[in-house]
Amino acid sequence: MILSSMILSGCGSADRAPEQAALPEGDNPFFNEYNTPFNVPPFESIKPDHYMPAFEAGMANQKANIEKIVSQKAKPSFVNTVEALENSGELLSRVSTVFHCLTSANTNGELEEINRKISPLLSKHGDDVYMNRELFARVKTVFDSQASFKLNGEQAKLLEKTYKAFIRSGINLEAEKQARLREINERLSVLTVNFGQNLLAENNKFELIIDSKADLDGLPASSIAAAEASAKSKGLQGKWRFTLHNPSALPFLQYAANRKLRETVYKAYINKCDNGDELDNNKTAAEIASLRTEKANLLGYRNHASYILEETMAKTPDAVSKFLAELWEPALRVAKNEAAQMQKLMDRTQKGQKLEAWDWQYYAEKLRQEKYSLDAEALRPYFRLENVRQGIFTLCNKLYGLTFEEVGNVPLYHPEVLAFEVKDIDGSHLGLLFMDFHPRESKRSGGWMTSYRKESKKDGKRLSPIISIVCNFTRPSGDTPALLTGDEVETFFHEFGHALHGLMANTQYYSLSGTSVPRDFVELPSQIMENWAFEKEMLALYATHYQTGETIPDGLVGKMMEASKFNQGFATVEYLAASILDMEYHILTGKEQVNTAEFEKAKMDAIGLIPQIASRYRTTYFQHIFSGGYSAGYYSYIWAEVLDSDAFAAFRESGNIFNRDIATSFRKNILENGGTKDPMTMYRAFRGKEPDVKYLLERRGLN
Fold first, then answer.
1. Which string of DSSP letters, residue by residue, matches 16-55?
2. How far apart are CA 486 and CA 284, in angstroms?
3. What is the pLDDT of residues 83-126, one digit of tens each?
4. Based on CB atoms within 10 Å of each CB, which residue in 339, 452, 579, 647 is the most buried?
């Protein structure tokens, strides 16, 4: 519903969209053209008190535009109805995009309060649009007579998506059921915001303060230095501070010799928002799941998963459950074998002690060193953040001919953010890319890609995208630059793949652009990038020692390759457990709220999850599904891994992992198309066949 207002050929020269309602005037930055380099939002001029007036004006403006659509005398057509609706909410999109990006990446108390206020209002506004019977009557007329409009493929897809949006929003429900649906949507909008805000507060709340060097035994120098800097930032001299942010907590669990302290950190991590206090998310999650079930039932679906999956590649809950079950058995078998190996290792020094969940990463690291002579910390000096970034730039140049130039004249939403102009193979401007790398209390955990402006066309011209990738990587410490872990390197490649999907978009309509694809397809462009990260030819391009400049030695690369399938049982099981937990919440058919602790335990026991492994995300901090848009969709990562492993095999089989012809095909058939075509149709056009699961099984050592 956003930016393109181009009158398309093939729809009739006399066919015109109604004039859009005038935008408001005033000194609010959202009411005016940005007039900044690349039309970046003027972050330094946007104040918290600008948001609510801009939201209110944006909703009013879209309502006025919709009233013009429904009140016009001209017969319904694609241009004057469907395309006009697509273009009706420019101001609302402008403010909403900036606001929601910042509440994830650089929030504060004022923005959190605004989020609590605006979420139910936006929910009501969305319902007002998609429960507008006069508007739907026009859309339905176009849908039912679409053959007469001679639509191209993208127009037909937009029409289909628009029509389905009304149906899936309850347009055909009787008034009483629509009223209940509105109540549910409003309540869900509040609950999902609360869930995420509680989790952010919980992540920032915990701290482990160590004042004895003996308790640092086993920890690498990088972790100790970061903890010392963290303590100093809180006014604590001569102490070390550890938090639940991944760059702090995960190395602690991996290296700290003090078992009791490992247990403390581990339990704090897996009990996030599960402590019976004001940040507890149990009741919130239960109510979200229950309301989603009721909503699905109102709309004629057996459960929430059926409602969600209808619009994905998987299509049905049964298909997802079958897929996960096929992977679960071999993964659990491998994980149990891994646990047995670590127990033997533990028995050498801790006789009579049983391997516990807080021991797993610690002994896995020791076993990795013993089996492969590979210390994960030994890799860090070769993964300086700036070098990894340049390596990714080089990869994108080899594959697609892209170049990246840092620009310093654009507004930034935080001083740590970097901005790069991205140019295409012919030197033309492709888009702008923000990168925001390190943890802070104003940023939620994890890594993600988002858009401040998606690509679309307006008056025949391409509106270039403004893309952002946001991560929580290890910070520099003292004289030592930011040295990434292997997992962080992989995350960088992953999020950059999402960025390319947004940057290379080449579609007419905003709502079909870039990552506007089914959830279980959107991870293909991100995950295929991970495949290059640790290839020998790729490492030679970026993995140089931050002090000596030496390229990573072949011997170390060889050890990495040998250990690539190490601990994959654990990694696969913890991921699959979370995917199954997600599905179990969303195949519920009753409206009654479950006891989440009992429910989660019962479901994990039923699949035989061993006690040394917890689900990657437990209920109370499963932000992906309760606050992040992945409900009944967390399986998507491994579903897409079937695609990405098969897709990368095309490069391997060509004998050149930088094969530009294959990359060009991937760009043309997948990256540029956004949501304009069926995902499997796009994949077959690229690969010439449907994907084979064998590549995934080989990669994870599960075959």
1. -PPPPPPPP-SS-GGGS---SGGG---GGG--HHHHHHHH
2. 35
3. 999 999 999 999 999 999 999 999 999 999 999 999 999 999 99
4. 579
Cα dihedral across residues 100, 489, 613, 223: positive or negative? negative
Q: Give me the CATH topology for the region 29-172.
A: Glutathione S-transferase Yfyf (Class Pi); Chain A, domain 2 (1.20.1050)
With beta carbons less than 8 A apart as the criterion, state whether 101 and 159 touch: no
Which position has the token pair 């999902």?
192
Enter the tokens of residue 509.
């309509």
Residue-wise pLDDT tens digits, 13-33 = 347 889 998 888 889 999 999
H or E stretch at 232 = helix 221-233
Question: Does the structure show a pLDDT above 70 at 398?
Answer: yes
Q: Which helix (H) or strand (E) holds 462?
A: strand 461-463
pLDDT at residue 15, as a whole number: 76
Q: Tell me the C-alpha distance between 112 and 115, whole Å.
A: 5
**Distance from the Cα of residue 377 to its chain's centroid:** 27
Residues of the chain with CATH 1.10.1370.40: 381-505+517-562+637-700
Q: Which residues are catalytic?
A: 495
3-state SS, residue 281? coil
pLDDT higher than 80, residue 566 = yes
DSSP string, 375-437: -HHHHGGG-BHHHHHHHHHHHHHHHH--EEEE-SSS--SSTT-EEEEEE-TTS-EEEEEEEE-
CA distance 315 to 518: 10
Cα angle, residue 202 at apex, residues 198 and 207 outer, rounded to 5°: 170
CATH architecture of 381-505+517-562+637-700: Orthogonal Bundle (1.10)
CATH 1.20.1050.40 positions along the chain are 29-172
| DSSP code per residue over 482-498 | -B--HHHHHHHHHHHHH
Place of tokens 């579609």: 507
